[in-house]
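PROTEIN DESIGN WORKSHEET
SECTION A - STRUCTURE
LENGTH: 562
TOKENS:
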């Protein structure tokens, strides 16, 4: 990752929700899947998204390589001229006005590179040099950045507006501005699926949300409508009648394609598996020191019955068997596009894909019905025991190769680091991509800060526990006195599958005796799996700059009502 951006993300506390994957994204595969619909607006959107992502990096980069005091004396949102507030992209009488045609003519370094935002015209020429997204910026120079503001939430930060206005050179002709008006553009999120109101959003565009812990432990199988949602970009609309899944094997010329109906002709296989985001419980790690990523609570996890075709059966038809030695990885490519118009991508080791006991499936049903759009309709790869990021949704292509996926999400995200590594020293090439997740547990009831009634000298506590790699939960320990004494929880629901194919979580509960003199207690919970891995006590020793693998003891402080 470019060292300039390492510094930027370390120094921007106000941009914690911004995912640097928007700035530097790699293609999942060398081939670019063109959408030949001839739609001019569709092309405009792709170009604008590419440009907006790169431009964001320009603003942030410039902000910190210049002297902030000299650059910004005070927030432009508070500045006034003759009593009139000056805001980003608002018409300014002290600047010249340019037509859209003039802006279009400024698209190279020789002619200067201009862009527009609302009624503003900006010259970004001096910031192309040395910026990692420079080539992408040149692809879209002379256009509006407004579509970008729709895609990513970074525009809500005042600092970005401040930087934008320091590059201001003029106004856009108001007739031309109406032509580019945001109201006349297609919002890529306009056709998103409806979501249940019980889901608590961590971000809206793209939509990411978790279920309240109180509801999470009510069912062993999480209802589809209440399953946590992790999207990186707008949910694609896919016509199942034209849908095809490509299967390609490195160094083999033949590419196989399957329609959904053809996939359903393979033997059907159903598994019960828990999927968890790598950032689950990140909000607790943030209390030690800020990290970059969505502020997930303990609800970025869910369990479902997944039905589909075994991946090993499909790969066998493509000539890949479990005795393959040269090829090492299976790459997955989604049909959702990233900021450079490439697909989301990830990969898993080939041994996991071809192992009969690996239970990797190309799922087309979730809890007995077609997979909902938010969860990958019409086909999602389910890799049980593996981090959610590798369970690629809206699956469009499978590529068996000697190397793992080159996508940003495989190479420069979803990796763990030592607590001593920060954004100045991080080297993503030195850490392996997360696959199996460590053992974890969480208290679902009561919640932090709750006032709970003591009934007959006891309080009731409920929660979940899970471990990656197919390990079974063998024990959950709970304490209310800082670990001086422990009690073992009861298992309310647990899958009967033996390790190492125990893919689902365990729901637990316990009645804990409390002293009548206590008005407040802090409940701790920790789980142990069938390999006798157990959770670490605190987050200080497992802190990492991305806030992943957040599996320390879960601690909840509550008030007691006797």
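SECTION B - SEQUENCE
RESIDUE ASSIGNMENT:
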């Amino acid at each position: 990752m470019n060292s300039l951006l390492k510094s930027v993300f370390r120094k921007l506390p106000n941009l914690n929700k911004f995912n640097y994957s928007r700035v530097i994204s790699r293609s999942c595969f060398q081939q670019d899947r063109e959408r030949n619909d001839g739609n001019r607006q569709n092309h405009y959107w792709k170009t604008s998204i590419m440009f907006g992502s790169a431009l964001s990096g320009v603003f942030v980069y410039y902000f910190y390589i210049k002297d902030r005091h000299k650059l910004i004396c005070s927030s432009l949102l508070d500045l006034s001229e003759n009593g009139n507030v000056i805001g980003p992209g608002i018409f300014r009488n002290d600047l010249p006005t340019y037509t859209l045609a003039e802006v279009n003519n400024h698209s190279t370094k020789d002619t200067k590179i201009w862009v527009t935002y609302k009624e503003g015209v900006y010259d970004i020429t001096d910031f192309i040099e040395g910026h990692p997204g420079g080539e992408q910026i040149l692809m879209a120079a002379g256009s509006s950045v407004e579509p970008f503001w729709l895609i990513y939430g970074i525009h809500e930060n005042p600092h970005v507006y401040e930087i934008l206005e320091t590059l201001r050179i003029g106004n856009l002709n108001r007739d031309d501005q109406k032509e580019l008006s945001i109201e006349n553009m297609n919002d890529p999120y306009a056709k998103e699926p409806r979501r249940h109101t019980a889901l608590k959003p961590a971000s809206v565009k793209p939509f990411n949300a978790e279920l309240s812990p109180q509801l999470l432990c009510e069912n062993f199988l999480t209802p589809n409508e209440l399953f946590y949602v992790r999207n990186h970009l707008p949910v694609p609309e896919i016509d199942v009648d034209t849908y095809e899944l490509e299967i390609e094997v490195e160094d083999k010329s033949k590419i196989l394609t399957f329609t959904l109906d053809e996939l359903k002709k393979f033997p059907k296989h159903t598994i019960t598996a828990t999927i968890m985001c790598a950032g689950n419980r990140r909000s607790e790690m943030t209390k030690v020191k800020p990290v970059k990523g969505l502020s997930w609570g303990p609800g970025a996890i869910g369990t479902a019955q997944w039905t589909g075709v075994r991946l090993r059966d499909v790969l066998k038809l493509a000539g890949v068997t479990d005795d393959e030695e040269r090829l090492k990885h299976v790459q997955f490519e989604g049909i959702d596009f990233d900021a450079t118009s490439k697909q989301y991508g990830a990969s898993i080791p080939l041994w996991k894909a071809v192992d009969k006991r690996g239970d990797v499936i190309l799922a087309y049903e979730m809890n007995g019905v077609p997979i909902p759009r938010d969860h990958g309709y019409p086909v999602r790869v389910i890799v049980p025991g593996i981090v959610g990021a590798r369970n690629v949704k809206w699956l469009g292509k499978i590529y068996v190769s000697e190397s793992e996926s080159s996508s940003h999400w495989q190479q420069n995200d979803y990796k763990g680091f030592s607590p001593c590594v920060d954004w100045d020293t991080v080297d993503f090439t030195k850490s392996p991509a997360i696959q199996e997740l460590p053992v974890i547990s969480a208290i679902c009831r009561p919640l932090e800060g709750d006032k709970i009634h003591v009934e007959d000298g006891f309080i009731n506590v409920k929660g979940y526990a899970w471990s990656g790699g197919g390990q079974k939960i063998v024990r959950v320990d709970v304490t209310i006195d800082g670990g001086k004494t422990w009690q073992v929880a009861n298992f309310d629901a647990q899958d009967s599958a033996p390790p190492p194919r125990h893919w689902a979580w365990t729901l637990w509960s316990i009645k804990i005796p409390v002293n009548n003199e206590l008005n407040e207690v802090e409940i701790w919970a920790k789980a142990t799996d069938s390999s006798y891995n157990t959770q670490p006590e605190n987050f200080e020793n497992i802190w990492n700059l991305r806030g992943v693998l957040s599996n320390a003891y879960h601690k909840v402080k509550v008030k007691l009502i006797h």
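SECTION C - NOTES
Residues 40-65 form the longest helix (26 residues).
Residues 199-430 form a domain with the Sulfite Oxidase; Chain A, domain 2 fold (CATH 3.90.420.10).
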